[in-house]
Amino acid sequence: MQRPEAWPRPHPGEGAAAAPAGGPAPPARGREPAGLRLQEPSLYTIKAVFILDNDGHRLLAKYYDDTFPSMKEQMAFEKNVFNKTSRTDSKCPPFARAELSDAHHHLHLDTSVPVGLIHPQAIPFSSEVLFPLLLSCSLLSSSGEIAFFGGMTIVYKSSIDLFLYVVGSSYENELMLMSVLTCLFESLNHVLRKNVEKRWLLENMDGAFLVLDEIVDGGVILESDPQQVIQKVNFRADDSGLTEHSVAQVLQSAKEQIKWSLLK
Question: Which intervals carry biased composition (Low complexity) (predicted)?
Fold first, then answer.
């Protein structure tokens, strides 16, 4: 039987492991290219979450690291991101979104249902001209989009007159960011009673912040299941209501005691 050839011995200084006595030496490990160096895994995957209106104005925002430490830097970043993504989503210009926002209430459309699944006969005859516009704008699309800007990965989606954004680092998994975006949208869709648009968001801002806090905390993803988020938000809302009621009872009882003590 032919004796197997030994591995070539590494040159001194290459950092290869020493060969065992009497056996072949393992292959030398080449140096890892600097550009291909793997990032250490981290739980802090989310840099920011923000919601803008169709003019690019901030409605809700939370930043989870010091990439943009000042309000001025945050607003500039949001403006640049909006300018890039709104041009990408040019199929539906801002003026069309504003018009369709009012029409959405008139037609009682569900923002969680893609337009392509709505039968044209379900829309009143006077609004048939609106259906092709809704379809072309893809306002109620359940999918999101991905953009790369400023060394960061950004996933976003639009709904009526809102733009929702989730921001991660350049090497972050897009599917993970997209799961956060989907959870945020579906949870807001429930809290806002299937009206994910500016008017309803402004009227239910407390609920929107509760939703966001249940999904992301300090940049760490806590939950990506909208059903779990909704249950936790409802529990916190009920608990808050009970607490306020208890405080009101204590204050009323104190007032009664003071009143009776003064009458004595």
Answer: 13-22
